[in-house]
Design goal:
Length: 257
């Protein structure tokens, strides 16, 4: 399996407090993996380091052979990394369609002057943006809501719209930060099927953070477990379920000898 993302000895400190310590990750092309752990374990910090929100105190992060440490978030997104957030961050006053359209504008080729006076390739690119946006909405079964204001969507569909907006950037790697947060069991079941479908349909590499164990155990091919910024276990979901240290730390129990 060809690696697409590699983190080597990543450490990050906040005012002398170590949030992530010597974290290593090798993510294969088209792999679907997860990071689990309690609140404060450093999971979202890892995502923020990958996407350039934070700059690692030490270590290396490479994506498809390009070093990411020190790169701006917009540059990292342009390389092919997209993410969602634990707290949904839609443009809630815009329509569903416009939320997806706006994600394309980091890659359009026309300049502000051409946009202002509708010159050059402006019209052709705008048509392409609209076509791709409508195609995504149809694929994600959101086309019936295209003209709806984003804030009026049910919670589960807002999650799906956030993912649609991330997919609009045509990423190679998608980072999902607690996609099941706030969902009821029926919505989680639909999300599980959706992630598996999306992984195959878009030929994506996916790394997700999640507290819903039913979801991660049935979606992820491999799991990494963080505790106080350190990785304490790595393996298949079946291996993690039987890992003595994981059970002791997170469940307060160990498997019978």
């Amino acid at each position: 399996m060809m690696p697409i993302l590699q983190l080597v000895d990543i450490t990050h400190n906040f005012d002398g407090i170590t949030a992530v310590a010597d974290f290593n990750l090798l993510l294969g092309q088209n792999e679907l993996a997860g990071i689990i752990g309690p609140n404060g374990a450093g999971k979202t910090t890892v995502f923020n380091l990958i996407t350039g929100v934070y700059r690692a105190t030490a270590g290396s992060i490479s994506f498809a052979g390009t070093e990411l440490v020190g790169q701006a978030p917009d540059r990292i997104a342009a390389l092919g990394i997209a993410r969602t957030f634990q707290n949904i961050r839609l443009f809630k006053e815009l329509t569903v369609l416009d939320n997806v359209r706006i994600a394309h504008y980091s890659k359009v080729q026309y300049n502000p002057l051409e946009a202002l006076f509708r010159l050059g390739g402006f019209h052709a690119e705008e048509e392409a943006v609209l076509e791709h946006s409508l195609e995504l909405l149809a694929l994600l079964k959101l086309d019936g809501y295209a003209a709806e204001t984003a804030k009026n969507l049910p919670y589960g569909l807002q999650r799906r719209l956030e993912i649609a907006r991330a997919l609009a950037t045509r990423p190679q790697l998608l980072l999902l930060d607690e996609p099941a947060a706030g969902m009821n069991p029926q919505e989680v079941a639909r999300l599980l099927e959706f992630i598996l479908w999306m992984h195959k349909e878009f030929n994506l590499t996916i790394l997700l953070i999640e507290h819903q164990m039913h979801l991660v155990m049935n979606v992820c091919e491999r799991l990494l477990v963080l505790d106080f910024g350190e990785m304490i276990a790595e393996g298949t979901p079946q291996e993690i379920q039987k890992n003595r240290r994981v059970l002791e730390v997170y469940l307060g129990e160990a498997p019978a000898s």
